[in-house]
Amino acid sequence: MALRFFNTLTRQVEEFVPRDAGKVAMYTCGPTVYNRAHIGNFRTFLFSDLVRRYLRYSGYQVTAAMNITDIDDKTIAGAHKDGVPMREFTERYTKCFLDDCAALRIAPPDIAPKATEHIREMVGIVTRLRDKGLAYESKGSWYFRVSAFPSYGELAHLDTEGMRQVERVAADEYQKEDPRDFALWKSWEESDGDVFWETEIGKGRPGWHLECSAMSLKYLGEAFDIHLGGVDLIFPHHQNEIAQTEGATGKKLARYWLHSEFLMIESDKMSKSLGNFFTLSDLVDKGWKPREIRYALMAGHYRQQLNFTVAGLEGARAALDRLDCCLRNLRLSEGAGGETEARAAIAKSEAEFRAALDDDFNYPEALAAVFSLVREINVLCGAGKIGKVEAALVLEAMRRLDSVLGFLDVDAESDEKDEDIEALIAARTAARTNKDWKEADRIRDELAARNVVIEDRAGGTAWRRKE
Ligand code: AMP
Ligand code: ZN
To answer: How confident is residue 159, by pLDDT bands cut at 50, 70 and 90?
Structure first.
């Protein structure tokens, strides 16, 4: 089955056909670097990471671009408040963002352009729009003339509710011809301080929407494949990006639009403005591991809201324990073998995994396929049918799956959470070497009390947690 997914532009699940055979150019709206991103933001960035990883797994050569918004009202205000130059301020939060991405195993984008380094390209779009009658100047600022662009609204499928939102967005901007018009370029104001560019369209700074139009066009070209972001970006941000790019080039901006749903907390969207958010470091400080957080944030289908709860994190920890346990047993397995059965289990699960992700990135189904493989391997292990050859095959399959999942530690010998157990096993081995059977039995009982089953084998003591 070919990859199919829901395209916000057409509101239909469509088969994915790339612009250039075998290649995918994708763009994700990146963070505004004025403070630490919260884990709600990371739900969207993790979804982008999943899409990218799965496209690579499926054999595509992927070019992933994600901008860094390092100029807007919030970066100016933040730098001012901290009394540091804006570049220093935004670099601090860009680093935080990239560090958090690395901890969550989000692959760095192939291209990560900064808005402040693309002012020339942004001005170029405004002048093209001006020459076509799609942009006008008013009090030193530039606006997009929505009335001259009849297809405006096609992405957001604007209805009366949508138009009401337009009016709200526009309420404070009286210098526009039409309330629906939006700012492309903002003229310098005193509160901007030393943040401005002298350009052929005047002294000022770009609007947020313009940044993404300029950078996606520059790095991915016209009509690139996939544009991605959270659902809150559909309107006005993505709608306006479309108007700008398509108005300037006469070509489509992107052919497929993917939007992921919110991370919620107690039935509200997790957001900076509501103050109901956690950052990655908040959770790490509470003892959660980044890979557990990654697992929990990816647990649901991307088109459904996901509730963030401690129970969700605990579930992630338990699931990862099961996976770690299976991997550890594989590394120690010394069964007689049963290659045909192992190969069949791998082929079946991997086919289910692909079918699930090809079906609108149905990640929960894909996870179910991974756990069905774990179950079958545990059964084969228990029956002595996993020897070195089979273990190598399964571990290889797990590496392939993890190129998409990004949370397995396929090649880790042990992880720190299991250190206590490893230490107890080492103490028991030492007791046995010293023929201290009483101590060895005591440790065995203690391990049993911790729900750990041990098995003495020629290569050492294997252990697993009871299911
Ligand atoms: P921002 O830095 O505010 O522009 O947001 C960066 C990304 O995070 C955007 O794609 C937003 O749509 C997304 N986002 C913001 N809040 C949430 C949330 N609660 N759940 C999922 N994604 C979110
Ligand atoms: Zn954008």
So the answer is: low
